[in-house]
Amino acid sequence: MKKKIFIFLPDGVGLRNFALTNFKQIGEANNFDITYWNNTPFSIEKEIGFKEIKLENNKNNPLTTIFTRARKRAELNWFDKKFNEKVYNTYNFPQSYGSLKEAVKSCMVDVLVATCSHAKGVSFIRKQIKKLERKSPKYAYSKTQLAQEKPDFIFCTNQRPSQAIAPILAAQDLGIPTATFIFSWDNLPKATTLVETDYYFVWSEHMKKEVLMYCPYVPADKILVTGTPQFESHFDTSLLLTKEAFFAQHNLDINKKYICYSGDDIVTSPLDQFYVEDLALSVRELNKKGYNLGIIYRKCPVDFTERYQPILEKYSDVIVNIDPLWRPVGTSWNEIMPSKEDFALQANICEHTEFVANVASSMVFDFVAHQKSCLFFDYEQPQLKKGIRDIGQNYHYIHFRSMPSKNAALWSFNKLELTQTVQDIIDGKLSNVPEGQLWFETIVGKNPTQASESIWKEIKKIVK
């Protein structure tokens, strides 16, 4: 008899890895009965044709938001004390006191943080969140659904959302084994592990060490190293067009060499548009010297601003805009849904450009999978003023310490030297690929093409 597996999507970020890849097909080939337990506005059944059960009730306990916000801040304070650091609190963002309602909530968070920024305090908050969510409408709703459906295992695709807490607790209280997937390389140092499951699926041995470091309540034998489906498409040659076909599809000049500029969200890089401009000026300068270069601008899928538009128009002689193939099904960042077609688009941009330039983006890993370099900008813009975040902060984050050396990426520390740096990369004098591959292996793991298969192998062991 087939084991019934629920792939739990608390929000949209899990769609990319677990609904739009071959993940389901591999599971079915392993004789699993797969249902998507869907908490997103995206209809998997209508859009993709996969079996789904919708979670219609989204009502958490009203106090949960306060305790989850406090947990993150208290944990980051505790990490700074525990590891003798100052960097963890830079992952925090200021609280809102703009309205009476928000001010009351923020003050309640502040009180909890002031009294609970230590091991026992964090443990207290964790327990309170569970108590609160067991009293929520969502918990009762989820428990009824699960009692009716009787799945053998629940795989949560994302450890961050508070919307996942009640359904996971309901499953555990019914004796259904649960697991969560750590969905991004920077999540664990940021104290974003809100969902507490029986098993934790991680990308690499490096990430397993991070779980043990930041989540001491998790036993080592419950952390399973599988890799991530996120990069599998980069090794799927069937997705790749010829250079001629790709260039024709996007009206690119076949005689030009293109550089990819990968845009950032406004929080990570609030002055990102000016780095695009700097790159465009360097390209113009090199073209005057006889080079024939252009820029493909790929925006961050969850960036909703118009800040790049004047730059794209001003430098239209060298910049071509190719938008990612994502679409909104809601209003928040985690309701911008990817498409299967975007896997191919992203892989082809990596394959048919010379290198990528950006601010602190994980696109370094996408490009090194294609043996291409990544240039990180790390200098201040003259537009920087009080109240605007300096992008240099990004490179001090804990997750950047995973670099085997600074040579795992290329760097632009000075706008005046950018043109020469770009020229040296184009001429083959500069590359971060050898060290970048070591960094890729550290973060992503040694078998990037086998992640989906590895996840199903571990699920098979658990449900036996």
UniProtKB/TrEMBL annotation:
Protein name: UDP-glycosyltransferase
Organism: Flavobacterium difficile
